[in-house]
Amino acid sequence: MSQDTWNSVDDYFCERLIPEDPVLTAALADSDAGGLPPHHVAANQGKFLHLLLKMQGARTVLEFGTLAGYSTIWLARALPEDGRVVSLEFNPKNAEVARHNIARAGLSHKVDIRVGKALDTLPALEKEGIAPFDFIFIDADKPNNPHYLEWALKLSRPGTVIIGDNVVRNGAVADAGSTDANVIGVRSFFDLMAANPRLSATALQTVGSKGYDGFSMALVLE
Fold first, then answer.
1. Residue 35 sits in which domain range?
2. What is the residue-averaged pLDDT of the chain?
């Protein structure tokens, strides 16, 4: 199978199940115009996250990595009017593009973007008493994934769902001898999930318009 086949299948899924959305299309266009990297989730992946939140009945979300706000829009749309997404973004330029996209989507009242290193902003977030979060989406720099998981557990409750994106690394996650910092971070992330009795977790490989990748899913038990 080839990337062309994966693209065609994703295109078919989106054509049949996810109507063209001018707000999301504009968000991607603004991301490209701003020179942001094309690391956003695919439309069917965004809808998958959206449906997970709906099924869970989530009201509060913590997102690691805002980028242009594409996934943030999918998350915020799944919440009730008094719901809240707190999204952590290191790059001020990304945050500026994201705020514009989120405002155009009519979701500024649901989304709170915090700019800076996540490991610097998380302690303040903890002190504010916003937690626990119902759903946590980790989609940021992979070397810090172990630290993000530790914080996710601090800010969670029994029943919180924690999703880790981009964990397959084109198959390199299975290479115990890898010297790639991203792979090392993801493998440490899995080690922590496996060793923590508070978590029940799994992971899936995926193919599609975003290539060969995958995600992890963990449920906080206690």
1. 3-220
2. 97
Q: What is the model's pLDDT at position 222?
A: 86
The rounded distance, in Å, linking the Cα atoms of 79 and 36 is 26
How do residues 55-111 score in pLDDT, each as one tens digit?
999 999 999 999 999 999 999 999 999 999 999 999 999 999 999 999 999 999 999
CB-count exposure of residue 76 (10 Å: 0-12, 13-18, 19+): buried
Number of domains in the chain: 1
Residue with tokens 């020179």: 35
CA 29-162-148 angle, to 5 degrees, is: 85
How far is CA 192 from each of CA 118, 185, 221, rounded to the nearest angstrom? Answer: 19, 11, 15
Residue (of 171, 213, 214, 211) closest to 3 by Cα position: 211
> CATH no. for residue 138?
3.40.50.150
Handedness of CA 186, 216, 1, 42 (dihedral sign): negative
Residue segments in the chain with a per-residue pLDDT below the cut of 70: none
**CA distances (Å), origin 39, targets 137, 145, 197:** 14, 17, 32
